[in-house]
Specification:
The chain has 229 residues and is mainly beta. The chain is built from 3 helices and 10 strands. The longest helix is centred in the first third of the chain and has 15 residues.
């Protein structure tokens, strides 16, 4: 059993993480809009749909849109990746393909923690039958780089058409002026952390997120994967 001092220390770390500035995450956004097409199933045009984010290692990051209720099991790839997490529900089963879909991501994972810069994959899956394998469904896979620089892509594939991937980036106009402006976690740039000190707790790891180049670098305490409990 954890002692009182250890519980109090862990609670203090959680409070500190919760109190970290969130303006940068709110300012930096990924917007994805697209049209869907039937996957050839017997329930068409009715369909269920999920959109989620994976990191460069193929690890699940967060669901950013889901239109499904009772037929959630037939989103086979999404179920395997997410464990059917419930962090995002956009609506019930869709009746057809007439409505264009738009989803957003605020650069945090399913635990609400900021994610580091890097390459991320946008996964899309649509089912219109009692699917038991991913290849029975429409599967869309698109990537974007989170590096603070705005970008827009117009792509298509896997049964998803007119896909627009709009990454707002981070407004760096004020970065380096020596003033901690809204959305910044450090300024001047040489005050931004490039490494993180040991948290002093084997169950929490100080992790560098953001970037000094955009004045958004900060150390965030995250739960350790190998914590003995």
């Amino acid at each position: 059993m954890l002692g009182f001092d250890r519980v109090r220390r862990l609670f203090s770390i959680v409070l500190a993480v919760t109190a970290l500035p969130t303006a940068a995450a709110a300012q930096e956004t990924l917007r994805v809009s697209f049209d869907t097409t039937p996957a050839g199933g017997n329930y068409a045009p009715k369909n269920v749909l999920a959109v989620w984010i994976e990191d460069s290692g193929g690890n699940f990051v967060r669901t950013i849109g889901r239109w499904a209720d009772r037929r959630i099991d037939h989103l086979v790839a999404w179920s395997a990746a997410s464990g059917q997490d419930v962090d995002a529900v956009s609506g019930a089963t869709r009746v057809d393909h007439s409505q264009r879909i738009e989803v957003t991501w605020d650069m945090v994972d399913f635990n609400g923690m900021p994610v580091p810069n890097g390459t991320y994959t946008i996964r899309m899956e649509l089912a219109d039958r009692n699917s038991t394998s991913p290849d029975q469904n429409n599967q869309g896979t698109f990537t974007f780089v989170r590096d603070g620089q705005p970008s827009t892509q117009n792509v298509a594939g896997g049964g998803f058409e007119n896909v627009v991937i709009d990454y707002t980036g981070v407004d760096t106009a004020l970065c380096g002026n020596g003033t901690l402006d809204e959305g910044e976690t450090c300024d001047p740039i040489d005050s931004c952390p490039t490494t993180c000190p040991d948290s002093g707790d084997e169950c929490m790891v100080n992790t560098l997120v953001g970037s000094a180049d955009t004045c958004t670098a900060e150390c965030v305490a995250m739960p350790a994967d190998d914590c003995p409990g």
